[in-house]
Design a protein that fits this description.
mainly alpha
């Protein structure tokens, strides 16, 4: 197997394996099938569905630890 010449080439070549490893090490804390907290309705603005998913993931993370990170791409 030839050595990738750039980070972009490396990511293209190993993206599936990297994605699988990330999901294995950092499984989602909240899925779209889980119910959201009714407290989300009390926010001043109604978040989009993806934002609700992120909010609930952060809430569940805070139940485990006192820190959380959101990575937006």
């Amino acid at each position: 197997m030839p050595m990738p010449e750039s980070i972009n080439a490396y990511l293209r070549l190993f993206s599936t394996e990297l994605g699988d490893r990330i999901l294995q090490n950092y499984p989602a804390l909240h899925s779209i099938r889980d119910t959201n907290s009714p407290l989300i309705q009390n926010l001043l603005r109604r978040p989009f569905p993806a934002q609700q998913l992120a909010i609930m993931g952060i809430v569940k993370r805070w139940e485990i630890a006192r820190s959380a990170a959101v990575i937006v791409t």
